[in-house]
Amino acid sequence: MDVTAIVAAAAVIGITGLLIGLLLGIAGKKFAVEVDEREAKVRELLPGNNCGGCGYAGCDAMAQAIAKGEAPANGCPVASESASKAIAAVMGEEAGETEKQVAFVKCNGTCDKANVKYNYYGIQDCKKAAVAPGKGGKACSYGCMGLGSCVKACPFDAIHIVDGVAKVDKEKCKACKKCIAACPNHLIELVPYNSLVKVACNSKDKGPVVKKNCDTGCVGCKICEKQCNFDAIQVEDNLAKIDYSKCKNCGLCAMKCPSKIILKEEKNKNA
In the chain, what are the domain boundaries? Predict the structure, then answer.
């Protein structure tokens, strides 16, 4: 074995490696992308759920948008109030006041109330059932199918199927809107956390059809309108709708609703 050849080969490899290292170092400095220090600090303050509730691809994209001034400091629906204030401090601005919101399922058609037109044995997924005749087995085609697409979509374990209807745990809900996007019947909406009065129906059918399909449902009688002293509830398309900016949580509409479809929640109870 030629020792000289081995030494020469080792020297060539060593010099080549050194040259590559130097070139990479020079290239790294020349083509380095300048990182905004604020972006890194904001990213540390974001929760890291990557849920997309902010409208961006994930927390990295959100941090970048905030640092560039393209998104507000309190734009993350999952971040706590203290985190939003800390992000605002990093950006040298005021966080602003934001009212916490939670998801609410506009349906009260549980197994004992919703009538069934046929037994559905298809894929246990609401989006799949939505293309079946009648949108699943329940007689009301506007209500919750109870197949759990929203449950699968929620990254916070905040929504579950209870007696055939999706129910939200408002203490766990982060208002990421994943369940809203997953519901083919569009019956999940965001409501203020402190709102106690909600209409648990999504049907646009007229009263007689509603009563035929479900034992509990809005019949569009407008009694709730007449009871409200704050003009906070109106019947549109045969369905009562609450303007939460006007609602005072007095509960008169819920007390007088003949169908008992307007629910009055006690304070500190789950939705």
Answer: 37-91, 101-264
CATH architecture of 37-91: Orthogonal Bundle (1.10)
Distance CA 86, CA 110 (A): 43
CB atoms within 10 A of CB 262: 25
* Whole-prediction pTM: 0.76
Q: CATH fold of 101-264, please? A: Alpha-Beta Plaits (3.30.70)
- Between 26 and 189, the more confident residue is 189
The pLDDT tens digits for 25-81 are 777 666 655 567 888 889 999 988 888 888 888 899 988 988 888 888 888 888 888
Q: What is the DSSP string of 195-246?
A: --EEE-----S-HHHHHHHBSS------HHHHH-SSS-EEEETTEEEE-TTT
Residue 64, amino acid:
Q
Q: Which of 235, 243, 230 is nearest to 218 (CA)?
A: 235
For 109, which DSSP code?
-
Q: Return the exposure string of 230-258: e unless at least 16 CB atoms fall within 10 Å of the residue's CB, then b.
A: eebbebeebbbbbebeebeebbbbbeebe
- 191, 104 contact by CB (below 8 A): yes
Residue 252: alpha-carbon gap to chain centroid = 29
Please determine whether the domains at 37-91 and 101-264 fall in the same fold group of CATH.
Answer: no
